[in-house]
Write a structure and sequence with these properties.
heterodimer, A: 189 residues, mainly alpha, 59% helix, 5% strand, elongated, B: 571 residues, alpha/beta, seven-stranded antiparallel beta sheet, six-stranded mixed beta sheet, 13 helices, 26 strands, 25% helix, 22% strand
């Protein structure tokens, strides 16, 4: 562990002193999420946890990461408005279970874990097959929605691909070798 | 006072009244105003002006709050309309919500409606295949309905007439059961659709896979420029309303055309309660209209009335138009009004994959949707144990996909670098159903809507003929797919209720004999000839082809007849 990571971890540990009580005492009044939600009682700290989960799934590289694009807010909005009740409940349960698991394994809330610890926890969920527990359900839902939010984001559809509202063409015999995979047009397949 | 009254009646008197502004009503409006008749069009829904009232038409995908999905609370509140394929975030404002306009389902029936100026012509799938004599002669040959009082020859010039104005793309394919029309260039088939077409041609005597004919301006002619419509831009976002006027709708074409004539009065938010009948004159004299918002009742008068309210609503309106002469509904001397309703069976699909053409894909978008397979069963002779047959759509496409496994940097890379999947093919059945007396609509005896109209009660179902036909579709297409080398063939049974096909027809059918039909060969009520019905309600049988083009042709023909007849009376 280099010095920078150690410092960052320390900062996370210090930070958890504030976060911990909120995680364990759900009945106490917590700050709500930063966007208004009609069905999901999500707190500001849970929102932060979700942002960390999304960033772990889609981290910042040489392209924007989940946090840069606010993908956790997309996940919350879609689940709140378009999710079925039972999926919403499983999601909330699973989110709490993830935080509890982080406490058990690392004595820290998920958001406060190191990037490596976060990745390791989520990788285990990613590799789980079969019918999902609430925890796995939470992970899969988040991953599915975050990925959709990423590929449908304005960033992705203008920079990674170019979405064309008006293609003005149809070629049913288009050679795949002519596809510019570095800059795909939405009109192509 | 008396003079004021007369003036008031004068301002409410027109040369012709058209009830409904959708596919056929728009044509009636255009034809009457072209001929110089002062015309009133009444529409129960709100006004929708071309371009101005298409709120989503230029939105990018990321500008929708829910990525195109319909929120759960809207889905739950609208179980019926939510089943419609086009009820999505970008176009849901054009569909009737379940609670706003209830009806009674004696049997499950998904009634898909668009109450606004333009009606469903805004959101239709724009398929425009002519009917043939195999369709118009079918009932006489097979004995499953009454004989049509017209033949293809009666309609052919009117098909040409409406095709030129609307703009229909297609190939002249020379297929007897699917007559060629006045076509703009066809949208081409893609490599796999073409391949399937050649395979089928080589292996079967009377089976064809052709470019679907559709109401898109693949080329702008002078007549389209005069309408203010431009070439189709291949957006395939048609259900939002097209800012280019690239596809035909009442909103982009017939209604503004009629408006420019100076002869059209368009009243939206006007629910027609009934058609007024004058016993002394022995004719219909006008309509009673209820303001959708204030509920105020007004009467309008004209010597010619066209009913184009949409197939089932036309039945409802006529059934509700009672008088001493017509206690069972206008023109309903034989008690058959509302009966012999039929539809198209869209409940079967078949999909597969093709491993060839890995080096080819598509670029751009095809607004025609791909291929069309005209009916090939029982065409020249009865050859199966079911009556009639089915047409089918056919399409092939490849999608970019990415590996959904993993997370972190690798997962992100895979999303950023999707790969092309295999070619996927799909076909959906469009089956003719047999009009039966037991498939009917009627007025609910107890319940009324907030405008005082009885609720429509619908009793329409599949029968054994449909089941046998559907089985045949699965078998024939499995065989055709197999012969073409397609793999991973899957049949899909949607088990959807009638109605979801959005091709309900009949109830006010045409025929020679007033004892067995409601309308004559000019679409006039036998018993009240100044009332014409030219929407889906008039259809004697349903054919397998999409019906809208036929409604347009019938309407233009009927208006011509009505105006000629009026002139003869004057002479």
């Amino acid at each position: 562990m280099n010095r920078r990571t150690a410092l960052r971890n320390l900062a996370f540990v210090a930070g958890t002193a504030v976060v911990l009580p909120a995680c364990f005492h759900e009945t106490t009044k917590e700050a709500p999420a930063s966007i208004s939600l009609r069905h999901l009682p999500v707190s500001a700290s849970q929102e932060k946890l979700l942002a960390e989960v999304c960033e772990t799934i889609l981290p910042k590289t040489d392209t924007p990461g989940a946090k840069d694009l606010g993908l956790h807010l997309y996940v919350l909005r879609m689940l709140d408005d378009c999710g079925k009740l039972k999926d919403q409940q499983a999601f909330l349960n699973g989110m709490k279970q993830l935080d509890n698991a982080a406490h058990q394994q690392h004595n820290l809330g998920f958001a406060a874990c190191t990037p490596q610890q976060k990745l390791a926890m989520l990788r285990m969920l990613d590799q789980q097959k079969g019918s999902p527990t609430d925890l796995a359900h939470f992970y899969r839902t988040t991953k599915r929605l975050a990925a959709a939010g990423y590929t449908k984001s304005k960033y992705f559809m203008t920079q990674e691909i170019v979405y064309e509202l008006v293609p003005s063409r149809y070629n049913g015999y288009f050679p795949t070798k002519k596809l510019d995979l570095a800059r795909k047009h939405h009109g192509q397949s | 006072m008396a003079n004021l009254n007369i003036d008031s009646i004068k301002t409410r008197t027109f040369d012709a009244i058209v009830i409904g502004s959708g596919m056929s009503g728009g044509w009636a409006a255009k034809e009457f105003t072209d001929k110089g008749l002062k015309t009133l069009v009444v529409e129960r829904g709100r006004d929708v002006k071309h371009i101005k009232d298409y709120p989503t038409t230029n939105l990018y995908p990321w500008e929708f709050a829910h990525n195109g999905e319909v929120p759960q609370d809207i889905q739950k509140a609208n179980p019926i309309i939510n089943r419609c394929y086009a009820f999505k975030e970008d176009a849901m404002h054009f569909f009737v919500k379940d609670a706003e306009h209830p009806y009674v389902q004696e049997k499950p029936f998904d009634w898909i409606r668009g109450y606004q100026v333009g009606g469903k012509s805004l959101m239709w799938a724009r398929q425009t295949q002519r009917w043939s004599n195999f369709d118009f002669e079918g009932p006489a040959r097979d004995g499953f309905a009454v004989d049509w009082p017209i033949r293809y020859q009666d309609l052919a010039p009117w098909y040409s007439y409406v095709e030129k104005f609307a703009g229909i793309s297609g190939h002249a394919d020379g297929i007897p059961q699917l007559p060629d029309g006045e076509f703009l260039p066809a949208f081409p088939l893609n490599c796999v659709e073409d391949y399937f077409s050649k395979q089928i041609k080589g292996k079967y005597a009377n089976r064809h896979v052709i470019s679907a004919r559709c109401a898109h301006l693949s080329e702008q002619k002078a007549i389209h420029a005069q309408q203010g419509r431009g070439q189709c831009q291949n957006r395939t976002l048609c259900q939002r309303g097209c800012p280019f006027g690239g596809y035909f709708s009442s909103n982009s074409s017939t209604i503004p055309w009629a408006m420019r004539s100076g002869h059209l009065t368009l009243r939206s938010d006007s629910v027609v309660h009934s058609i007024l009948y004058d016993e002394q004159q022995g004719r219909a004299t006008g309509i009673r209209v209820i303001d959708a918002h204030t509920k105020a009742v007004t009467e309008y008068y004209a010597p010619i009335l066209f009913v184009n309210a949409g197939a089932l609503n036309t039945n409802l309106l006529l059934l509700n138009s009672t008088s001493r002469r017509f206690p069972q509904g206008l023109g309903n001397d034989n008690g058959l009004l509302g009966k012999f309703v039929a539809f198209h069976n869209y409940s079967a699909r078949i999909s597969a994959e093709y491993e060839g053409f890995q080096d080819l894909t598509t670029d751009g978008r095809n607004p025609a949707g791909g291929g069309y397979i005209p009916r090939f069963r029982n065409v020249f002779k009865q050859e199966t144990n079911f009556l009639r047959g089915y047409a089918a759509g056919f399409g092939a496409s490849r999608y970019f996909g990415s590996d959904s496994d993993g997370l972190g940097v690798d997962f992100k890379k895979s999303l950023e670098n999707p790969t092309l999947g295999p070619w996927q093919v799909g076909s959906h059945m469009m089956g003719e159903t047999i009009p039966k007396e037991t498939n009917y609509v009627r007025l609910d005896p107890k319940h009324k809507d907030e405008w005082g109209m009885p609720l429509l009660s619908v009793s329409v179902d599949y029968d054994d003929n449909d089941a046998k036909m559907k089985q045949d579709f699965y078998e024939q297409f499995t065989e055709m797919y197999t012969k073409a080398g397609f793999t991973n063939i899957k049949t899909i049974n949607s088990k959807q209720a009638p109605g979801l096909d959005i091709h309900e027809m009949g109830g006010v059918r045409m025929g020679h004999d007033p004892k067995t039909s409601l309308l004559n060969k000019w679409n006039q009520l036998h018993a009240c000839p100044n009332v014409y019905v030219t929407d889906g309600a008039c259809m004697t049988s349903t054919s397998t082809q999409n019906p809208s083009l036929t409604y347009m042709a019938l309407t233009a023909r009927a208006v011509d007849h009505a105006v000629q007849a009026a002139k003869r009376r004057d002479a």
